[in-house]
Design a protein that fits this description.
This is ATP-binding cassette domain-containing protein. By secondary structure, this protein is an alpha/beta fold. The protein is built from seven helices and nine strands; from the N terminus they run E-E-E-H-E-E-H-H-H-E-H-E-H-E-E-H. The structure holds adenosine-5'-triphosphate.
Length: 263
């Protein structure tokens, strides 16, 4: 893959926390190429450095060694907790994100409405977060993440890396039915907006349901131990037999990896 064909390229990225004898190596020489428009799911044992990796890609932290090339991509991050401002309405939360991106005041209301429509929450503009279900709050969080990737006065084509959405267990706290619905939603938005997605999950079936590719990290320190392309046609069902079969293969490999490191 050439540099131009990647949205995100991690080359030998290591991350240590602390110094001297008390330092902890969280990531060890991770190399990973993500193509523009690709949906990549990251799996690994608890504490193997998945969130650390997303934080590095989001520039919330810096690698101790190695490089991360984003090819000019705009990056937004979404967590398990929607972290909306409770005193603002749904529209207010989105307008604030748009303001942070430099969208002029007169355009914000309309842009917020478009974003809300895109996550099927058009009728909930005036609600406050506590008046929404967990799944709805995550949809608002998704709309806000999309708002944070808007760049005013920039031609979309002028950003070679496009938009990279980093999702850290975004549906981990939701019930299975709501999660299923949100899988359909994120797949639709990924497709229609041509997003590149890096998605962390503990749920192997969820990774196979959503990913073009599932990347397995070793137990701490995290290294890429194996990659599984997901060949099944979309949309996939999380309870489909071929999803379950590939998920079982990946789970066996994950168990082996966890066992090897005694985690
Ligand atoms: N700011 C920090 N300072 C010190 N240690 C940290 C820091 N952030 C993460 N770590 C450590 O780095 C390791 C990797 O953490 P990280 O949260 O990235 O793992 P994870 O794979 O996302 O875990 P989980 O699956 O449980 O969410 C852990 O041992 C964690 O305690």
């Amino acid at each position: 893959m050439t540099a131009a064909a990647t949205a995100v390229r991690l080359s030998d990225v290591s991350k240590a926390f602390g110094t001297g004898g008390s330092s902890l190596l969280a990531l060890d020489q991770v190399s990973l190429d993500v193509a523009p428009g690709e949906f990549v799911c990251l799996l690994g044992a608890s504490g193997c450095g998945k969130s650390t990796l997303l934080n590095l890609v989001a520039d919330l932290d810096r690698p101790s060694a190695g490089t991360i090339d984003k090819n000019g991509a705009r990056v937004a991050l979404m967590f398990q907790e929607p972290a909306l401002f409770p005193w603002l309405t749904v529209t207010g939360n989105l307008e604030l994100a748009l303001k942070m991106r430099g969208v002029p005041r007169e355009d914000r209301r309309g842009r917020a409405a478009e974003l809300l429509d895109s996550v099927h929450l058009g009728g909930f503009a005036k609600k406050r977060p506590h008046q929404l279900s967990g799944g709805m709050r995550q949809r608002v969080a998704l709309a806000r993440a999309l708002a944070l990737t808007i760049e005013e006065n920039k031609n979309e084509d002028s950003v070679p890396g496009g938009t990279v959405l980093l999702m850290d267990e975004p549906f981990g706290a939701l019930d299975a039915m709501t999660r299923d619905l949100l899988h359909d939603e994120i797949e639709r938005i990924w497709r229609t907006r041509g997003l590149t997605v890096l998605f962390v999950t503990h749920n192997v079936r969820e990774a196979v349901r959503l990913g073009d590719r599932v990347v397995l990290l070793s137990s701490r320190p995290g290294r890429v131990v194996e990659e599984f392309p997901v060949p099944m046609e979309r949309p996939r069902r999380i309870d489909a037999a071929d999803v379950a079969t590939l998920a079982a293969t990946i789970t066996d490999r994950l168990r082996e990896e966890v066992g090897r490191h005694g985690a």
